[in-house]
Amino acid sequence: MAKFIRVESRVTGHQFDIHEEQFDETAHKRVKRYPPVSRPRRTKFRVGNSPALSVSPVGEEGATDVASNSEGD
Fold first, then answer.
1. Sheet holding 28-30, edge to edge
2. What b/e readout covers 1-40, taking b as 16+ CB neighbours within 10 angstroms?
3. Nearest 5°: CA angle at 15, between 45 and 41?
4. CA-angle at 35, arms to 17 and 27, nearest 5°
5. Cα(30)–Cα(4) distance, rounded to whole angstroms?
6. For the segment 10-46, what is each residue's pLDDT rounded down to a tens digit?
7. What is the spatial distance between Cα 72 and Cα 51, in angstroms, rounded to a whole number?
8. What is the pLDDT of residue 48?
């Protein structure tokens, strides 16, 4: 019988079940508090303050340019 394990994505932080043969140490982090199961569970999406999501690139609307602010002093 196929075994699914709970993992967390290293990129997004989402938790989901994958087949144990698909586990990749570089892409996933094993969540040990969940035992292996025969059918995959629902995905738990990461929500909240993520540094990658809250940083706006320079030149985009709403981004501030530190150099232009210091010239006016």
1. 15-19, 4-9, 28-30
2. eeebbbbbeeeeeebbbbeeeeeeeeebeeeeeeeeeeee
3. 100
4. 40
5. 11
6. 999 999 999 999 999 999 999 999 999 999 999 999 9
7. 29
8. 79
